[in-house]
Structure formats: C-alpha cells, structure tokens
Amino acid sequence: MDSTTNMKDIEWARINKDVLGSLETPRITFWIVLAVCSVLVLCGVAAEVYQYNHGLGVALMDRPHFWQLYISNFIFWIGMSHSGTLLSAVLLLTKADWRKPIYRFAEAMTLFSILTAAFFPVIHLGRVWNLYWVLPYPDERGIWPNFRSPLLWDASAIFTYATSSALFLYIGMIPDLAICRDNARGWRKPLYTLMSLGWMGRAREWIAFRKTYVLMGCFLVPLAVSVHSIVASDFAMSIVPDWHITSFPPYFVAGALYSGCAAIITLFVMLRYIFKFEAYMTIDILEKVAKLTFAIAMVWNYLNLSEYASIWYSNDMYEHEVLIQKFIGPYWPVVWGMLLCSTVAPFAMAFKKFRQNLWGMFFLSLVIQLGMWLERFQIVSPSLASNHEPWTWAVVWPGLIQLTITAASFGWFTMLFLIFCKVFPSVSMYEVKELVFHHRRVSARNEIEDLNKEKDDMIRAQEGLA
Amino acid sequence: MRRRKMSVLFALYDDFDKARDVVADLKILDMKELVVEDIELYSPIEHPEVEEILGDISPPIQRFTFFGAITGAICAFLLVAAAAQSMFTVQPQGGKPVIPLPTDLVVTYEGTILFGVWITLLGFLIYSGMPRRRLKKFYSHKVSEDQIGVEVLMKPDNVEKVRETLLSSGALEIREV
What we know:
Chain A is an all-alpha fold.
C-alpha cells in the first residue's frame, strides 16, 4: 500500500492490531539503536560529571568568548522542537488529512527536543546549583529576576512551550490510550487505565475533545512562533555585530521550521522501517512533507540572503568585518558547510523521483540537519571571534568534553523518542480510522455519482434512439 | 420521593449509518410514546454529524479558554509589574520606566497562553466527565475498535419496545443493565 488513496481498504480492526503490535515487536534495529543511544548518554553523563568537578575550563570556556557549542546546541534543539507541534497545530486547523498518521511522533519529537534543549543552559551555567535563580521569586535582598532580560523571557517561553506541547500531545493521545487500555495486559494495563482517564468514546466526549484540541492548536501556533523569536532575542537584543539584526526572529523561526521538518523526515523513515508502518506512513505523505520542507528551505534561504544583504549595505565596519571573516576567516568550513548542506542540497527535493525515494530522503534529511546544526554554530562563534573588543578575538573550536556532551544529546533525544514509541502508539489510531472512514465515504459518493452519470447517459441514448 | 430505577440497553452496530438510523427511529418512537429518557452514541472516531441527531451537545469550552487567557495575562503582567515596582528603590532604573510595557508584554503573552491552555484542559475534563474511575458496566471494547454503540436509558416498562427497535436496525449485540 503506497498511497493514502488506498487507505480506505484498511480495516479499522487491522489499524488497532498493527499499531498495538508496534508496541510489542519492533525490528531488532530498535534495540541496536537504543543500545547505541544509551552508551552515548552514559558518555555524556561522564563528561558532564568531569566538567562539574573540574570547572568549565575543561570545556574551553576560559577563553574570552563564552557562548560556544552548548548555546549552539540549545538553539538547535529548540529549533528542532518547532516543527512537530507547530505543523501539527497548523495542519489541524487547516484540516489537512495527511497529518493524521504522522502528527503523533512529530509532537513527541517536539517534547523530547525541548527536554534535550533545556539541558544546555544548565550545562552551560557551570554552576548548576544556581539554576533556581531564573525562577520568578525574590532573593533575600528583595530583588527579583530581571524580567527585562531576554534570558528570563526564554525561561518563561520554554516553560510555557514545554507544558503546552506536552498537554497537546497528551490530549491528542487520550482516545488511543483507551484503545491500549482495552487491549493491554501486565504492567501496561494500569498505566493506560490511569492515563486514558476513563475515556469511553461517547459522543459528548468526542465533541468536547475536538473542541479542546482545536482551541489548544490555536494557542500553540503563536506560542511556537514566539518561542523561537524569543530565543532569537537572546542574540538580537545584544550589540554584538552580526547578532543585532531585526530580521533575526523570523530568520530563527524559519530555520527552526526547516530543521524540524528535516527531523520529521528522518523519524518518518526510521519509524516506518523499525515498526513496519508501511501502510500508514506512505510515500505519498513523505512527498507532501518533502514539498513543505523544500518550501520552508527556500524561505530560510531568502532570509539568510536578506541578512547578508542588510549587513553588506548597512556600511557598518564591524558588521562587514564579521561577515567577511565568516566566509574567509578561520570558521569558513562551518559557513560553507552550512551553505552546501542547507542551501544547495535541498534542491534535490525539487525532483519528484527524489522526493519519493525513501532512503534518499532519509540521507538528505540528515544532511540538512547537519547543515542547520552548523548554522547554529556559525551564528554563535564567528560573531564572538570578531567582536567590538580586540581582546576577545579568539578562535575557539569545541573540545572533547563539548563534543561528547553534544553527541550525548543526540543519544538522549533518540533514546527518549524510541522509548516513547515503544510505550505509546506513535501512529494515531483514531485519526487514521477517521481518514479511512472519510476516504471510504468519498469513494462511495464518487461511485454513486459515476453510476448516476452512466444511468443518465443511457437514458439520453435511449431517448435519442427513440 | 424515591427516584424510580432506570434500565439501560446498549446495542452494538457495525456501521455508523445503522446507529444513526436507530437513533432516529428511537426519537420517532419517543415522540409517539415517550419511551426514551436519554440516548448516547459511542464510537471509535468522532462523527461531527452526531449533533444533528442527538441535538446540540457542544460544550462551551471556549469560555474556559477565554477566562484562562484573560486571567493568565493579568497574573503575568501583575507579576512582572509588581516585581519591578517592589524593587525600584533597591535597583536603580537609570532613567528607564519602572514598568516597561514592551518587555513586560513578552511575559504577559506567555502567561496568557499558559493559563489559557491549562484552563481549557480543565473545561474539557469538566464537560467530558473525566477522569472517571470506572467504565460503565455495559462498555464493550469493540467500541474502541470498529463498532458503534448506542446506549438508551429508559423506564423498565419500555425495555422491550426499545429492544425491538434496536434489533430491527441490525444490532450485533444488545446488553442490558
């Protein structure tokens, strides 16, 4: 079954069986990937413990510029979190049917990306025991945190986004949790019973559910946009050359959507293979996601070019210097690598044949994500290396500790995501059933119309003969 | 006066159209002989057209959303404004306003959404009658799989009439409580 148009042939009972089966028997690849991710996480924990004991100097944070890979990773993971909930909410509000088989894992991706991102400011702090300073309460001298600081806005935005995304994911899962409850045995039974809240599929429940889901979707669209705009404000509100740009918030949002869409493609192919979801995660849907990614890639490229243009024509010597240094200075491999991976490579998606190639798209999505990760790095480090103050001019490359913690973050995200997919249904059963139901209705209506047309033609032909 | 005991019949159908037809038949029967107290439909998916047959059962959750959003905005703004006001004697403002609206609006915006989402959830739980500790006795797992359930609440005297109507529309199974 390679197209959504064939979904009408899937029986509802089979949908339950397939998706519930995915909770029990994934391919062996699942366990291999999970084991690799767990090892990465352990390495990351060891690196963090080492950094905690020896200070931030081991992460090369004793140089004049202090925002390095941890902040790049923070932006990368926040960006990754964007597409899941935002696209799910937008496609829900616009009633795009093709979101139904893929929105659940995309929303889960959002949640786990935020959880991963939230680690980095803490790791970057060094003094992790002072983390509570960002909480909104006064210290012993009666001084509150400074709410005018974008860092405080960040904390409030990320908290709101994480909470709302988790609720959006959970609410959307309730009918499926009831299905799991009705079929589960062992330790799963009490878990699903508790989480399904006694859902029975009553008409009143469905109507309240749909209304709530749409209302939450309405909140999540502006919220998602605000989160990355605020992350952009961390940079744009400063006076560092190449950061103090008004187009930074939309540029960040477009970049976040872009990397998020690429991540959806990666996970789409991974889940389809590991959990044998060929009937639901169809090539047709992959092609639609690819088209969307391509469109967002073009928006991101436009904003990137407009940023270069506004710096070039601003006639500001500091800004000029940073821009020139980006392309021919010590960080040139990062910048050119980004352009190659995120500007040139996505043009492959202009070709239908490529968009329909599962493993080609998987590889491209990884390349795009690499490009977007480099993009985050080239936003943070080159600007600080050519700052206003000559004494801060230091070219710093990430060291072993930073790289280990970075690799561990990928392991952590993938590990959480895989565990989620093993415990909770990663394809929305009730929404796929709705999709099947509507496809059947439409095809039945079309058949009746065709029959009526044939009948009319025959009557007309008979009248003509008469 | 002691409330008279009610009976419940729960019928399962393999098709939504059949369930819809039986609800229409029961409504007609009720208009003639007043046999039905309440009807509820159970389904594995949402059927928006269900309101046409069961009447307007749409809950006003948007009022919760509105209330939550307004409350969130006020609380968040008061938090940041009061925090700034409380410490303007200890922290010099350097000529800047004590309560700067543009920066405070960011936190207010986030507060609006945070409270809006939570109170919407509360509205959902209230109107859908959840969380529920126990499922109804007649609940069938088939309803979460591929069948449509029709629950009819009636006086015990009318059970046979309703059962007949449910069977005549092709019920696969009928449970009585």
